[in-house]
Amino acid sequence: MKKIAFLFVLVFGLTAGCDYIDDPIQGGDSGGGNPTDSLVQKVLVEDYTGHKCPNCPDAATEAEDLKAIYGDQVVIVAVHAGFFASPSTGFETDFTTPEGDAMNGFFGFAAYPTGMVNRKGYPGQHVLNFQAWPPAVADALLDEPRADLNLTASLDGNTVTADVEVIYQTDLDGDYAAVVWITEDGIIAPQVYVGQTIPDYEHNHVLRTSLNSTWGDTISSGPVEVLTPYTETYSTSWNAEWNEQNCHVVAFLYDMATFEVLQVEEISL
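Below the sequence we write its predicted structure tokens.
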């Protein structure tokens, strides 16, 4: 099936939250596609979490509250990684991914729940306690959109294919990459929450896989051509354990030098 924002100094550290230092197919709507005069900036909220993290449900609630305020301008991805994410007795569901593990290590996550908002502030100020997400999101939404991102995706048999189109809105010079992920909602599995275990907790926005590796693929290098489409197609194998009706495809464009996300889009599969 195919379905086509006040400047704030972020001073929150990594001391809140869990305070755990981690162990050493056809026809439909499309994402993006807005005409230039109605193009809006969207924001990627990456929630680094785990099913044994006692404060992580509060972070998930914060992310959902932001989604309720800003709607489609906020895209949430829950990355299960680190000590609290590992499967164990009573928590057999494995939400981890190679991509999540790699990003968790690279970006230096050591306490949970924490996350990133458009990956702004790298290096040094990119990891945010969830209580810092609201001002960070409001700040990021004030950015003038530098790119439009159009996304379509299809599931044909055992193959998921995504077509990404980037249209730069302003002069840029550098290396920019596109990453495409599959996420899944509505996964019922145990979750620790402040001294108790919720046996039927609903896990949403769970990162399942990447269609084009952890860091994606370069979509442009050097000076860009403004208002000229840059297109790429990516595909990966479908996992039969995923519920197609609950899955989304997320694509984002980022600066390969700073890792800052310029634009993000999400569509239903």
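Residues 1-30, 32-36 have pLDDT under 50 and may be disordered.
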